[in-house]
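step=predict obj=DUF3501 domain-containing protein n=201
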Amino acid sequence: MSNRKLTLADIGTLAHYRQQRPAIRRTIIEHKRHRRVALGPNVTLHFEDRATMKYQVLEMMRAENLCSDEAIRQELAAYNPLIPDGHNLKCTLMIEFSDAIRRNTALHELVGLEHQVYMQIKGCPPVPAIADEDLPRSTADKTSAVHFLRFEFTAEMLAAVRKGTRWSVYSEHPAYQHHVDPLPDAVAIALSHDFEPGKVD
């Protein structure tokens, strides 16, 4: 999958998307399946790439009935920063509780969670999440249910990934300590493609 930023030429028309949406949805649902990691029972990491961001732009076009080039450019400006650049991974972290009261309590208990998520390639130092670079999403006493994370990897780490070294993701928040070690093979393979900037989609 290419890490090129999306342009107007990549998006096409709203009419075309409406016609092709059922097939596109089936494809993207399968694509996302191998880019999703459940970190414990209440946190999910959705790793983004060019395909997922293109889908988000298309869905915004559909929801908002966007047809003008300028309106679509604004969506591209919002979503392009979530496309990895070849030496990092980017994901949406979602805190999920089915009960609204419990969810509200948890958002107070989990303040700072977004800064205590790590990825680690076996034999390499842990990589801390860089959270919410666009704008703060938490207050001193309550976190947000949605955060945007970036993980930056060194050349040594990328070389280890290419050799098939196993890796993991974990949270160290005192109220939410969970590990996924190792990442499922299908997820690890999918994410390793984000480290191939020259690959054409």
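step=describe
Helices lie at 8-11, 14-33, 50-64, 69-79, 100-109, 155-162, 185-192.
step=end
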